[in-house]
């Protein structure tokens, strides 16, 4: 909303350095203050006072460096055009008509860092990270300020026209054309409602069919007439017009429509020039629907996930590789593996070979305690956090490391990061099946699907974050019913690192995790650092993969939602027979694509053996629609999950403290943590009090270690030669005999 877009008005004004006559110490202090201001992010203020007549600013254009959307991909030169408060960009100046993206700077939170000549623009859906050359930095900042205020003034004066811009200049060269189209749609709406009795959604669809679809449909039928970039421009035009019509539509007090999000999608049609094309259809007469690549109609109202702390994202240095010759960050969100492999599916299930069934869980062989009946709900529903002002907490931390920023307990969920790591093995049956699958390519599909399933539980985590583990905190999860046993420990505090290990007769899973993040005014980018490992004993396989980037949108207002995007590379270090790349597709403003993944398994020669697709929160399908086979489907959510932190049934069980289990656990186990237990029981005041006490205890222990020049040594994990944390294989033995009651543990709570 505009209110959030203009939140920067609340920023603290920069203090101009002053110099006292004859005071060297004051001058030195002021110089230090200037350097400090240049090294920090400054939020740029927006429109002040009442709207009025503001002169239209001159357009600004030229090359800037833009950071790629995927992590570790560096910076690339792009041509930007700033006109009437709208910032657009393309690959080259000669390609102005081929739009690669655009944002409304009037609806953006703008922040700058003078030392690195960086400019960041954060809307609800996109974040632009830009860098400008030294000679042009001040000019671009000045122009962006002017255009931003001009655009905010327009929005304030004409609120119904806030979405009436068309970034594709070659499609809408005259802004009056858009107004004429909207006036036409309004006229059509009145006439249709009066004469035909059409409802509002029907009128909008009818209007769109008159205004845009006649231009677009010929290219769907004859894709050779149009390249992909031009088609995307048409689709962007269509989506923006729909949004504009929706704003106008609401002024007549008609119900709002949900744009381009429906489950009534026909089987995906693939064209090599256009890619997937979806066309809306009515239900079939017999009520059946084929298995198709669908678009979810579920709300995006979700915030993660396994992000226990907010960390500072890595700053990348500009190098000669930041050039125009690198692959575009926006040309495609599909894995670039498609450029180097053929589409020969010689051995694949696309031929119709049946997939092996999922294997039943094998016993863990541990000394697990079988819980007679696991709980199905939490003791108390989630309390309201409406009284917490996130902006007051975060406004002075744009672009900073947030790991040390104190957050109210109302923003937490009654689980912590160690337990969230355990949630990643909820669908361990996929690894059980992989360990019983002879075909190495099919094994890779199951391992890749398991890697995707780790993100499923984050979708419904609306507005809460896990507790941060204290140094030395542990968590165990012994599940004979699932055939595995899991342990985790907080092995480092600065930087915070969590290590975990899970073993079974069918697999071994381990990882150590650190998160880095930046908050940009409306969104939060989270980069997860570390490698995940899985071994399958039946074949001696050792798989490794990276995690993708996560981004939480609408941090301050509206419905929060999370997306995961980037490329996950999976390799078997024990064999080079095959490899796999999974692309988590980033949402585009003009596309209904959300939460989609696409993957392929290739052989040593780069030939595609298997392909799979789906949504990371719903399911994964192998093959080609409509004959694709379901590999995995997420478990159904519990009743009233929205009232209980969006927890899955598996998550509901993680913090349960059974009477038979209690004497077997070490006193450092998360289940004994009082602040987390109070929150689970709905005692907010008690949770806040216990949280402060536990944090103070941790500070006291750290002070004692520092005074005695002693380094903390994790109890159940050890550091390997390559700086990764591995299980020391003593936990379950100590648990069994002589049990943890005879061990000396620090007092954590």
UniProtKB/TrEMBL annotation:
GO terms for biological process: bile acid biosynthetic process. It is a peripheral membrane protein. Residues 10-26 have a biased composition (Polar residues). One of its GO terms (cellular component) is cytosol. GO terms for molecular function: cholesterol binding; sterol transfer activity. It is found in: Cell membrane; Cell projection, Filopodium tip; Cytoplasm, Cytosol; Endoplasmic reticulum membrane. Its main location: membrane. SMART domains: PH. Keywords: Cell membrane, Cell projection, Cytoplasm, Endoplasmic reticulum, Lipid transport, Lipid-binding, Membrane, Nucleus, Phosphoprotein, Transport. InterPro entries: OSBP_sf, Oxysterol-bd, Oxysterol-bd_CS, PH-like_dom_sf, PH_8, PH_domain. Residues 1-31, 318-387 are annotated as: Disordered. CDD domains: PH_ORP3_ORP6_ORP7 (cd13287). The keyword Transit peptide does not apply. Residues 57-122 form the PH domain. Residues 334-344 have a biased composition (Low complexity). Phosphoinositide-binding protein which associates with both cell and endoplasmic reticulum (ER) membranes. Can bind to the ER membrane protein VAPA and recruit VAPA to plasma membrane sites, thus linking these intracellular compartments. The ORP3-VAPA complex stimulates RRAS signaling which in turn attenuates integrin beta-1 (ITGB1) activation at the cell surface. With VAPA, may regulate ER morphology. Has a role in regulation of the actin cytoskeleton, cell polarity and cell adhesion. Binds to phosphoinositides with preference for PI(3,4)P2 and PI(3,4,5)P3. Belongs to the OSBP family. Homodimer. Interacts with RRAS. Interacts (phosphorylated form) with VAPA. Interacts with OSBPL6. This is Oxysterol-binding protein.
């Amino acid at each position: 909303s505009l209110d959030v877009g203009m939140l920067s008005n609340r920023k603290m004004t920069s203090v101009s350095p002053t110099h006292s006559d004859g005071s060297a110490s004051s001058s030195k202090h002021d110089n230090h203050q200037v350097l400090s201001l240049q090294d920090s992010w400054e939020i740029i203020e927006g429109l002040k006072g009442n709207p009025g007549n503001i002169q239209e600013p001159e357009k600004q254009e030229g090359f800037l460096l833009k950071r790629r959307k995927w992590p570790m991909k560096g910076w690339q030169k792009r041509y930007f055009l700033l006109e009437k408060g709208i910032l657009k960009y393309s690959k080259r100046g000669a390609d102005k008509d081929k739009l690669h993206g655009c944002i409304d700077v009037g609806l953006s939170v703008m922040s700058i860092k003078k030392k690195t000549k960086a400019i960041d623009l954060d809307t609800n859906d996109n974040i632009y990270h830009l860098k400008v050359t030294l000679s042009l930095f001040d000019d671009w900042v000045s122009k962006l300020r002017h255009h931003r205020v001009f655009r905010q003034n327009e929005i304030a004066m004409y609120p119904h026209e806030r979405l009436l811009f068309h970034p594709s200049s070659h499609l809408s060269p005259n802004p009056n054309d858009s107004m004429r189209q909207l006036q036409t749609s309004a006229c059509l709406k009145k006439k249709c409602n009066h004469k035909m009795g059409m409802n509002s959604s029907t009128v909008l669809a009818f209007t769109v069919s008159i205004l845009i679809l006649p231009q677009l449909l010929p290219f769907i039928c004859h894709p050779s007439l149009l390249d992909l970039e031009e088609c995307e421009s048409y689709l962007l035009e269509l989506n923006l017009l729909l949004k504009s019509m929706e704003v106008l539509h609401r002024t007549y007090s008609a119900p709002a429509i949900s744009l381009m999000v429906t489950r009534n999608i026909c089987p995906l049609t693939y064209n090599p020039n256009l890619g997937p094309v979806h066309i809306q259809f009515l239900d079939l007469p017999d009520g059946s629907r084929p298995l198709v690549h669908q678009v979810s109609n579920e709300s995006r109202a979700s915030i993660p996930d396994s992000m226990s702390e907010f960390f500072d994202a890595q700053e990348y240095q500009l190098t000669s590789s930041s050039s125009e010759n690198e692959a575009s960050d926006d040309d495609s969100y599909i894995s670039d593996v498609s450029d180097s492999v053929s589409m020969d599916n010689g051995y694949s299930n696309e031929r119709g070979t049946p997939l092996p069934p999922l294997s039943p869980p094998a016993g863990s062989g541990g000394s697990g305690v079988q819980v007679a009946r696991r709980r199905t709900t939490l003791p108390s529903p989630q309390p309201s956090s409406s009284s917490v002002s996130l902006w007051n907490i975060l406004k002075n931390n744009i672009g900073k490391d947030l790991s040390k920023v104190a957050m109210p307990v109302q923003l937490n969920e009654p689980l912590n990061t160690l337990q969230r790591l355990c949630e990643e093995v909820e669908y361990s049956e996929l690894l059980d099946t992989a360990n019983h699958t002879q075909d190495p390519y099919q094994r890779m599909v199951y391992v890749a699907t398991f890697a995707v399933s780790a993100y499923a539980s984050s979708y419904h985590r609306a507005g809460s974050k896990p507790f941060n583990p204290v140094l030395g905190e542990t968590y165990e999860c012994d599940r004979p019913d699932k055939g595995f046993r899991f342990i985790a420990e907080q092995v480092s505090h600065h930087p915070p690192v969590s290590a975990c290990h899970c073993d079974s007769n069918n697999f071994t899973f381990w990882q150590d995790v650190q998160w880095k993040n930046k908050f940009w005014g409306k969104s939060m980018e989270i980069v997860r650092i570390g490698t995940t490992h899985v071994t399958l004993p039946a074949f001696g396989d050792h798989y490794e993969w990276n995690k993708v980037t996560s981004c939480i949108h609408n941090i301050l207002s509206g419905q929060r939602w999370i997306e995961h995007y980037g490329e996950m590379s999976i390799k078997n270090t024990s064999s080079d027979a095959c490899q796999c790349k999974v692309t988590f597709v980033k949402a585009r403003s003009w596309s209904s694509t959300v939460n989609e993944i696409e993957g392929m398994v290739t052989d040593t020669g780069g030939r595609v053996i298997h392909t799979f697709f789906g949504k990371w929160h719903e399911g994964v399908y192998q093959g080609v629609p409509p004959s694709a086979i379901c590999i995995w489907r997420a478990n159904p959510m519990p009743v009233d999950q929205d009232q209980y932190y969006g927890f899955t049934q598996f998550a509901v069980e993680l913090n349960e403290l059974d009477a038979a289990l209690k004497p077997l656990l070490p006193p450092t186990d998360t289940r004994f943590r009082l602040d987390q237990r109070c929150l689970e029981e709905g005692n907010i005041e008690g949770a806040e009090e216990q949280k402060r006490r536990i944090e103070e205890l941790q500070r006291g222990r750290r002070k004692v270690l520092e005074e005695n020049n002693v380094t903390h040594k994790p109890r159940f994990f050890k550091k390997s030669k390559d700086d990764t944390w591995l299980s020391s294989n003593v936990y379950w033995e100590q648990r069994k005999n002589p049990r943890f009651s005879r061990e000396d543990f620090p007092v954590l709570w």
